Amino acid sequence: MEWKWGHMDNKVEQKTRILLGVLAVVMIFAATFAAEAAEVAWKDHDSARDLAKTSGKLQIIYFYADYCGYCKKMSKETFGDDSVAAYMNEKFVASKVNSQKSRELASRFHVRAIPATWFLKPDGEAITSLEGFIKPDIFLWILKYIDSGSHETMSFPEYMKKNSVEHLLEM
C-alpha cells in the first residue's frame, strides 16, 4: 500500500473544517443564550410607582447601600438569577433605592436594616417587607406567594407546604 500524503492532508483538513464549523455554531448559540439572560428592569422610584398604578402590577422597592456586603450578594445572586429576574419583570415593577442617598424615602418606609425589600399593591399600599439577604430559590417562591395573592389567606410556610417545597425553608 502506497502512502498518500495529499489524501491524508485532505481528510485532516476536512475534519478540521467540520470541527471549526461545529465550534462556531456552539459559540454563536452560547453568545445568543448569554445575551438573553434575564436582568431585572429596575426603574427609579417615581417611575416605578407611576407604572405600577397604570399597569396594575405589584411593586417591589429594594433598599440597599453601596457599603453593604449582603446587598451586593443579593444583587448578584438573587436579582442576578435568571428565573427571579424574569418573574420580577413579568409580574412586578421594581425600583432599586440607595438608602444612603434617599434617606427620606427610606425613612418613609421605616427601613432600619438593609437590604430591605418592600412589596406594594399597585396603588402603593404596603403588603409586607423583608429584611436581609434572601436566597434566589426562596425569593422566587416569595414572589409567587405575593403575586398569587396567597399572602391574604395563608402564611408563607403554609404556601410552601401546599406547593410541596417546604424543604427549602430548612436550608
Short structural summary:
With 171 residues, this protein is of the alpha/beta class.
Explain this structure.
This protein is 51% helix and 16% strand. With 171 residues, the chain is α/β, with parallel strands linked by helices. The protein has two domains: 36 residues; 129 residues, Glutaredoxin (3-Layer(aba) Sandwich), CATH 3.40.30. Strands 1-3-2-4-5 form a five-stranded mixed β-sheet. The chain is globular, with a radius of gyration of 24 Å. The termini are far apart. About 4% of the residues have low confidence.
Jot down its keywords.
alpha/beta, Glutaredoxin, 51% helix, single chain, 171 residues, 2 domains
- SSE run: HEHEHHEHEEHH
CATH topology of the largest domain: Glutaredoxin
Q: Given the C-alpha coordinates, what overall shape results? A: globular
Strand content: 15-25%
Q: How does the helix and strand content classify structurally?
A: alpha/beta
Helix content: 40-55%
Radius of gyration: 24 Å
Report the major sheet.
Answer: 5 strands, mixed
Strand order of the largest sheet: 1-3-2-4-5
What is the name of the CATH class of the largest domain?
A: Alpha Beta
Number of domains: 2
- N- to C-terminal distance: 68 Å
Give a count of the beta strands, DSSP E runs of length 2 or more: 5
Average per-residue pLDDT, rounded, comes to 85
State the fourth-level CATH superfamily of the largest domain.
Glutaredoxin
Which consecutive residue ranges, at least 5 long each, have pLDDT under 50? Answer: 29-35
Level-2 CATH architecture of the largest domain = 3-Layer(aba) Sandwich
Q: Treating each run of at least 4 consecutive H or I residues as one helix, how many helices? A: 7
